[in-house]
Amino acid sequence: MTNSQNLFSSIREEISQLENNLKKxxxxxxxxxxxxxxxxxxxxxxxxxxxxxxxIAKITSNNQIVKLEHARLAEITExxxxxxxxxxxxxxxxxxxxxxxxxxxxxxxxxxxxxGDFLFAQSSWYLANMNNLEVVxxxxxxxxxxxxxEVKQGLISxxxxxxxxxxxxxxxxxxxxxIACSCKATAILSKCDQHTQKDLYLYGKxxxxxxxxxDDILDITSNTDTLGKPAGSDLKNGNLTAPVIFxxxxxxxxxxxxxxxxxxxxxxFKAIRIIKNTKGISKAKDLAEEHIQIAIQILKxxxxxxxxxxxxxxxxxxxxxxx
Length: 323
Fold this sequence. Notes:
This protein is an all-alpha fold. The protein is about 75% helix and about 0% strand.
């Protein structure tokens, strides 16, 4: 198992500063909107996305120092990610996230949607103030991708004909695009050549896809306490993920539950039991590992330094979440 404390030790100061800055960046004049935004920052995640940015900033700079522009990009990325979670929780009707009540559960759906919109707007404002058109273009595309991903997911809900290719495309829009684009934007800010930018984009893409696949496995294998949100949420919302798609190839009983749109909570439990009795989870894990190995190989081919090792450890840490 990868030790998360050692993993982030080289960027502990940067992460601490990021958390302080985020509180200032989400300031809103309306008290309810501000409370909603502040509530989101109480959710202590691992800060994987900004951590990757900080580490890439170090391996692409001569003195291994994170510049102010890199730090601001990390903050913008975390705000965009947080905004997307607020909208996801509304769409999926989740009551909790990381063990904390969701914004729409505490306030209401209207406030939650507005809080998400506010965070997207704040991130766009700070992004524009970076005065780097290339970075503005690539990060702005992420917000478009998020919207496209949600629409695509909505159109194929409870559709048992979904293919792994469809799933990977949807996962790119929902998760991998932010990591890929922020990795490339970090390289742009470091004035790296186009080959390095492309390689780091691909590293982020494959890390992002693996991250989403592992998340989807955990939705099947973990309990609500571990997940910080209800287990089986994907099934309930008709979001058919890699473990389900692979399990469908092996056990056609699942088709009935999907076609009935998991009519009862018992149907979800029965479906999870069927999936666990197939090779669906192990095949999904193999798929995640393929993407992790591609990401690691990209780094090994181009960079050799301490912070590269940390990026490789992050890749392994993502995979370790299901062990």
